[in-house]
Amino acid sequence: MDIESIEYELARLSEMVGVGQFDEALNGVDTLYAFINEGCERNAVFFRILSNIASIFIDVGHMKPCVESSQKGMDILSQYKDGIVGQIGDDAYFYNLSNAKSNLITEKNPFNHTFSTIEQLVEVKKDLWKAIKSCGDIDSARVQPTYVVNLGNTLKQQFRISEALDCYERVNSLNLDIPQSWINRSETLMMLNQVSNTYSIQMLEQIKNGYENVLSSQEIHSSWLEYYRQQVSYHQNKIVEAYKDAEIEMDSHDLDKTKSEYNELSDYRKFCLDNNLSLSEHGLYCSCAGSSRDNLTIPTLGGVVGDFVVPMEMVLNRLKSEFSFARHLYFEYLTEEQDYELLHDSCFSELFNDELLGIDVEKLRTAFRSCFGILDKIAIAICELFDLYPPNGTVYFQSFWQLDRDNRREKFNSHKSPGLLALYSIATDLNDRKGGEWSFFKQLRNDLEHEFVVVHKTDSPSDIYKSYEFIKNIVFINEDDFLNHLETLFQLTRSAIFSFVFAVRDKALNEKEDGHIYLPNSILRKDYK
Question: What is the C-alpha to C-alpha distance for residues 445 and 364, in angstroms, rounded to an integer?
């Protein structure tokens, strides 16, 4: 079989998958794989063909579904990794690998996940981060929108709701016809309703709006349109009921009012909402006046029970204080003009070594360090709340879990909740022993604290007078890279704060003993906006 015939066969098999002839496609790709594996030289053409064969196995595994087919595709990608990467690149390779692993997830219902089954999702998430990072950063033009949608999907399954919504909003803002992003955004908002035990009419409006966008898509098969019409109708009825319960009239111009209210917000609050940096549950999906403050609290409108509520609210106050400080430093760095008078007053020697110095860059460095302080405080609060201190008593957010020691996995499972699972998932991103894609953040934080870290503008900083020559441990980082890392760390930290609140709230709402009902004044009003 020559190359032209092989390519024709690959196209034929792909078409069969597209029309639902899965058994025929699987038999055909099995035969083609056996032929290729035995009779072809291991060259570039061989690895390109193998990549396509693996993709067909994975597609059949997803659509049929068929575990064996997905496993075959993953085995090909693993066995011939170097050769396939050489043909399709790191990003496509890890994206395909993540799809194969996703097909093999045994527990499909996120709410049934444990601290054992979630490990499969952690692996999928790790591969998707690799795919995106190999393109630069999540905002890079090289990143395929499908990578970001799939990342959002796996984060959603791990209850990392704020990050999942951030992914979908990035894709939806591109105005492309990608209905999966709208579908999953609506599903994530429904999950938020379950996890947070809160809702608003605007949340229902946003869910309905997502399904309405799907109905106008050219990428949805006609057989699914009726289902999404039913979803629109169902949520419209829920909206009518909510207005009736709230004893307020429906407003057909609500979207215009939301835009008007947003325009009246301060530049700083607009920045927080535009960059998904607010600590408001309403602000997760809406930018109206109801999102004008960081009004996240542990108690819900119905009240919560537990002697731990007030101490944990104290913790939340500290987290919000430090996060808002770090966030404002970031805002000032991005929006305020450099104060040359202050820079002049500092009287730095001109060494022509491209190092950024002064108050402005110190804002970035301080913000980065502050985020790790927030995460470690969350870890301490979790250990206190659930009596989960590690054997050595040392608590760092990314490493205190130690699930494979002293039956700790079972201990965590006894306290399992969506918020706690989400916190573990976030920690795996920062843990080098778990292969976390952002584990180097911890080292960078330590370097900022204890070593010489040079933030510079150019790709390769010059050093005319050899000022760096006599310091052994100097870390160099480009300003753009530092900003990208800080943005990612902000999203991880914000997600951890929300997840902490949901974990504490879940414990409080499930408290069996009678106790005082906590209803802080800040949440007494019912926000239907």
Answer: 12
- Complete DSSP assignment for 425-441: HHHHHT-GGGT-TTTHH
Report d(CA 440, CA 436) in Å as an integer: 8
Quick check: helix, strand or coil at residue 183?
A: helix
C-alpha torsion sign, points 145, 151, 155, 160: negative
Report whether pLDDT(492) > 90: yes
Amino acid at 416: K
Angle at 120 between CA 142 and CA 162, to 5 degrees: 60
Mean pLDDT of 455-474: 92
Show contacts of 287-292: CB within 8 Å, 24+ apart: 287/258, 287/261, 287/262, 288/202, 288/257, 288/258, 288/261, 288/262, 288/529, 289/261, 289/264, 289/265, 289/529, 290/200, 290/202, 290/527, 290/529, 292/265
- Give whichever of 24-33, 132-141, 196-205, 461-470 has the largest mean pLDDT: 24-33
| Residue 477, beta-bridge partner list | 455
Name beta bridge partners: 517. 305
Can you give the pTM of this predicted structure? 0.94
Q: Encoding tokens for residue 474?
A: 């100097």
Which pLDDT does position 524 carry in this prediction? 35
Beta partners for residue 365, in sequence order: none
Percent with pLDDT over 90 in the chain: 84
What average pLDDT does the segment 55-76 reach? 97
Q: What is the DSSP letter of 355?
A: B
| Cβ contact 382:500 at 8 Å | yes
Alpha-carbon dihedral sign for residues 512, 517, 521, 526: positive
Q: Where is 274: in which H helix or E strand?
A: helix 267-274
CA–CA separation, 340 and 152 (whole Å): 42
In sequence order, what are the beta bridge partners of 454?
476
